[in-house]
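--- STAGE predict ---
source: upstream dedup step, 1 unique chain passed
mode: sequence only
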Amino acid sequence: MLLFFVALGLFCGAGWLFLNKGLYLLPDKMCEGTLERGTAEQVLPRARSADSGSDRQEAGRHLSFWCHVTTSEDDSLSGEARVVQVSRDKWLDGYRNAGGRHRVLRVSVGDVEALAQMGPDGDTSSVYVPCDPPGLGPDEASQPYAVVGETRTDGQARAAGVPLRQALTDFAYRLSAHAYQLAECDKPRDFPDELPRYKDH
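--- STAGE serialize ---
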């Protein structure tokens, strides 16, 4: 009889673990190394299960790279980095002019700039990295190109305020740095380990 209850306990425990594949069971690094499990655990609430995935399309000036973590509670952390033809001012104006959003926090290092802002549907962060993609014609080469990364939460978030915005910005920065390499931008660039912290500004 004792063996029966021990076996039953092990079975129930295994069943609980099977049904509760939470964030802690995600890989240490996801999306080609751009997202760490610790970041997902910091940003997203606990859940019964979670999954992650990434994808990329095209190359060079048409490159897009996506990453997401989604939980069984429909909360998600996602982001993408794309090569786009946009000036720094137009990129920034797109966030400044977004309706219903609060003030934009900004940090930069060299010509790499990042921002974060809180919106009615969650926080968003974006990173701008100038990029000269290969294969541009003479007219295109005279236009500003950049890798632009953007990350966001959907649903509930575990973190809030500056910690959440910092986590989103760090994620957007890693996405952008990775996409810069994938796009084979013409100017070699050393990316610092991290951007300046918002708490320092």
